[in-house]
Each structure stands twice: as structure tokens, then as C-alpha cells.
UniProtKB/TrEMBL annotation:
The lineage of its organism: Bacteria, Bacillati, Bacillota, Clostridia, Eubacteriales. An accessory protein needed during the final step in the assembly of 30S ribosomal subunit, possibly for assembly of the head region. Essential for efficient processing of 16S rRNA. May be needed both before and after RbfA during the maturation of 16S rRNA. It has affinity for free ribosomal 30S subunits but not for 70S ribosomes. Signal peptide: none annotated. This is Ribosome maturation factor RimM. The PRC barrel domain binds ribosomal protein uS19. Keywords: Chaperone, Cytoplasm, Ribosome biogenesis, rRNA processing. The gene is rimM. It comes from Caloramator proteoclasticus DSM 10124. Belongs to the RimM family.
């Protein structure tokens, strides 16, 4: 499991005082209200940056980050991802998972047939859909209890009941 989870991407500057526009990568955009700090990744290191202010504009989050005090400084952070550490991530309900933890899981049927790896997760409104790929093909599997039977993050395995018509 990853120690850091993406919560947004800086897409542009906002104003002249160093605020940045963030495209949220989280289901609950209001979670930014609770963030005291975020992490910015530079190569292999994560740097902690305090959040000084949060506003919302259309589907974006406007953040004021400590140490970024003008538009020129903010420009340097365009396209940079923002992360939270797992310890400060939103607490999930039972049988709910972070997308970052699902990507890369090996998927097997209950009978033991290897189907491939989860390569993407799509939010459709009613339920998520997992894209499973192997060398030969791709499957789209609904994330519902009738299909998803076991998720073992420690061993990177998901077992599913492959209902008729899903292949």
C-alpha cells in the first residue's frame, strides 16, 4: 500500500497572492476544508506544506499554501500533484478502498482463473467499475457485492464472482 495518496493537481495560479487552482482527485471535495497540510512530491521525496486557506470556485479548489506568496512562485507548481499521508487520509467505511490501493491488484475468479490486473477505476454514480487488463483483453467489472468477493491488499489480490455476461 502506498503511504501517500493523491488528492489533487495544481492546474493554474489564482490571483497575485500565490493562491493555486487545484483540480480535486477525491470523491468529497469538501475534505480540503479539513486539511492542515499537504505533501508535494519532488523526485522521490515528499515535502510537507501547510495549507493557509481554502476556497472553492466551480469544480476547483483554491488553496493558499505556505511559502507561495506571489503569482511567480505559484507558476512553478503548475501540474504538480498534492498528496496526503495515509495517517491523515479520510477514514473509509468497511469494504471501501482507496483507488490507489486497488490499482495493480491481481484479479482471480473464485475458481482460481487469473483475469489480469486492475488498471483503472471509473466512478459511474451508482457504483464504481474496475478495468481489468491482461495481455489478451480487457474487462469492465462492476464494484458490487455480488461480484467482488474478497479484497486482500496485503497480498495484492482480488477475488471475484464473474457473473454471466461480464466476460
Amino acid at each position: 500500500m502506498k503511504n501517500y495518496l493523491k488528492v489533487g493537481q495544481i492546474i493554474n495560479t489564482h490571483g497575485v497572492k500565490g493562491e493555486v487552482k487545484v483540480y480535486p482527485l477525491t470523491d468529497d471535495v469538501k475534505r480540503f476544508n479539513k486539511l492542515k497540510f499537504v505533501f508535494i512530491k519532488d523526485k522521490d521525496a515528499y515535502t510537507k506544506v501547510n495549507v493557509e486557506g481554502v476556497k472553492y470556485f466551480k469544480n476547483l479548489v483554491i488553496l493558499k499554501l505556505e511559502g507561495i506568496n506571489n503569482m511567480t512562485e505559484a507558476e512553478k507548481y503548475k501540474k504538480v500533484y498534492l498528496y496526503v499521508d495515509r495517517e491523515n487520509a479520510v477514514k473509509l467505511e468497511e469494504d471501501a478502498y482507496f483507488i490507489a490501493d486497488l490499482i495493480g491488484l491481481d484479479v482471480y475468479t473464485l475458481e482460481g482463473e487469473y483475469l489480469g490486473k486492475i488498471t483503472d477505476v471509473f466512478s459511474t454514480g451508482s457504483n464504481d467499475v474496475y478495468e481489468i487488463k491482461n495481455d489478451d483483453n480487457s474487462l469492465l467489472i462492476p464494484a458490487i457485492k455480488d461480484v467482488i468477493k474478497q479484497v486482500d491488499l496485503n497480498n495484492s489480490i482480488m477475488k471475484i464472482n464473474l457473473l454471466e455476461g461480464l466476460r
